[in-house]
Amino acid sequence: MTNFETADVFKDLDVNDDPYSYFEYLRGKGPVTPLALRNVVAVTGYDEGVAIFRDDENFSAIDSTTGPFLPLDYDPSLDIDDQIARCRQENPFANTIINQDLPDHNRSKAILNGIITPARLKENEAFMHTLSDQIIDEFIDRGTFDAVSEYGQPFAQLVIADLLGVPKEDHGQFRDMIGDPAQLPGALGGDFDFSKNPFVGIATYFATYIQERRANPRGDVLTRLAQQTADDGSLPDVMEVVAVATFLFGAGQDTTVQLFTGMMRYLAENPGLEDRLRENPALIPDLVEEVLRLQGTVKSTFRYVRRPVTVGGVDLEPGMHVMINLAAMNRDPKRFPDPTTFDIERKNVRSHVSFGRGIHACAGGPLARAEARVTMERLLPRIRNIRLNEAKHGPAGARHFDYLPNYSLRGVSEMQVEFDRID
Amino acid sequence: MVKITYVEHDGERTTVDAQPGESMMKAAVSHGVAGIEAVCGGNCACGTCRIYVDDNWRAKLPSPGESESEMIDFCGDPDPRVRLSCQIAVSEDLDGMEVTLPESQQ
Ligand code: HEM
Ligand code: FES
Q1: Topology at the third CATH level for domain B1-51+78-94
Q2: Which of A295, B42, B70, B99 has the fewest beta carbons under 10 Å from its own?
């Protein structure tokens, strides 16, 4: 077992398999605690993390996805904001909506707000029901499915395709453009191959859609996307719109897939729970929230310190990376009593931070919640006696999974579920 | 400085000195008013910065814009006094204003 004192959380496979014990070790040292490596300070306290999320002046989001592997060697003799700006110019992956600071972030957010509107979400939910049924049809006779590749991935991908108005005839191609979760920012050791990323293919589709709709508007969702203006009222470049649209496929894919695996796991480990939900589907949203709290996919995100500031009694200096451990904040006993107990009746469960806080808070929160709820609403009337495949994952009490090797995302590469069909 | 009082559901009152131009959400959050969650940081995307404004003060506020109205509908808060505090800019006219907060922002 790894010695936590010297563990390199950015490389260590034991910590990756059980990050929660490591976070409790960190919590024992304080809600904000420097790691003796890579100029990183770890946050496990709920209040401290929320305070950082709300402070856009002292912290930059440029490292939110990369953490300390951000290609920026801070030189204290030069202006830090200039260095951040240069790093963004040189590294496009440090200039997406999730990495931008004010005021640039306002521009991307305006484009995004035009895409994810309450009205659009309602229409999208109707599509989710049909899609869920279709995907369940593919495995219902088999009595088994992989919650990652045979449900989660195609479902999450096509929900976003529909949200953005991708024509039905192209859905097949989008289903084939699902990325390998091993090649994502946050990969252990800091290297991932972005060229293997399906974004390039997706971006090509969207560039064509947007150009075509700008030339020939036709009153569909893609036309609205093509005509969406930025915060200053101007029409953005085609590639700016493409960047925001493409980003949604990355942000909404593996994250949501792991919400499904989390729910399957709790259903399998808590016999009786599925009956309770079947009898009273109004409890499904409470299940979703408690799974998000205990198994939120983003275990850690990052902020870059750009001004001297004190949080939780710890002085932070420009150039430091703050590792905001959402998974630890969600288990802060000061906020959530008896934090490791799974309890769908928790009163304040919705104040979990699995979707972050502040200007970068997840834009897809309402969508992900709807995806999880619809999935349960469609699955529970059709399958029962939900179990995990013991040959693959071991018996209850001694389960094992292949966890994604990633210091930012928590998830499994496969989850083989077994069930009985309800006729 | 503009004095605004936020009254929590349990009756706890916090009076803050707000800056003209900042949002009523920012004024509350930066003074530690616990009943304003503001998950989305003021992007009109979460509906967790809701306040209840009585008629006399309501009349002094610009009416909600399209995105604020849509988000209010989306959260389904039935109280007719509801507004989103992130969409209201503090101005001198609001000096002395009192608003109440929902029992829960969810
Ligand atoms: C259970 C599923 C999901 C989880 C746990 C999740 C989690 C998160 C978290 C923690 C952040 C903030 C990161 C930070 O502040 O550093 C975030 C941002 C974001 N998420 Fe999600 N997400 C999920 C699903 C989705 C979906 C389905 C979409 C797309 C429709 C989406 C789109 C986004 C976008 C666009 C941002 C960046 C927002 C900004 O920077 O303004 N997410 N997500
Ligand atoms: S802070 Fe999210 S809507 Fe006001």
Answers
A1: Ubiquitin-like (UB roll) (3.10.20)
A2: B70
What number does the ligand 2 atom closest to the CA of B44 have? Answer: 3
Contact B102 CB / ligand 2 (< 6 Å): no
Does the beta carbon of A360 lie inside 6 Å of ligand 1? yes
| Residue numbers of B between 14 and 43 with CB closer than 8 Å to A | 29, 37-43
Quote the pLDDT of residue B8: 94
pLDDT at B43: 86
Say if A6 falls within a structural domain: no
- Hey, is B10 helix, strand or coil? coil
User: A208 in a domain, yes or no?
Assistant: yes
Atom of ligand 2 nearest to the CA of B50: 4
Structural domain contains residue A177 = yes
Residue with the smallest CA separation from ligand 2 atom 3 is B44
Contact B40 A351 (CB under 8 A): no
Give the domain extent around A134: 13-421
**Cβ–Cβ of A360/B41 closer than 8 Å?**
yes
Task: Give A253-312 pLDDT, tens digit per residue.
Answer: 999 999 999 999 999 999 999 999 999 999 999 999 999 999 999 999 999 999 999 999
Interface A-B, measured as beta-carbon pairs within 8 A, has a size of 41
A5 within a domain of the structure (yes/no): no
Nearest to A113 among B37, B42, B45 (CB): B45
* Residue whose token pair is 């192209």: A170
Task: Give the pLDDT confidence of A39-83 residue by residue, as tens digits.
Answer: 999 999 999 999 999 999 999 999 999 999 999 999 999 999 999
Return the CATH number at A412: 1.10.630.10
pLDDT digit string, tens, across residues A363-398: 999 999 999 999 999 999 999 999 999 999 999 999
Distance, CA B82 to ligand 2 centroid (Å)?
13
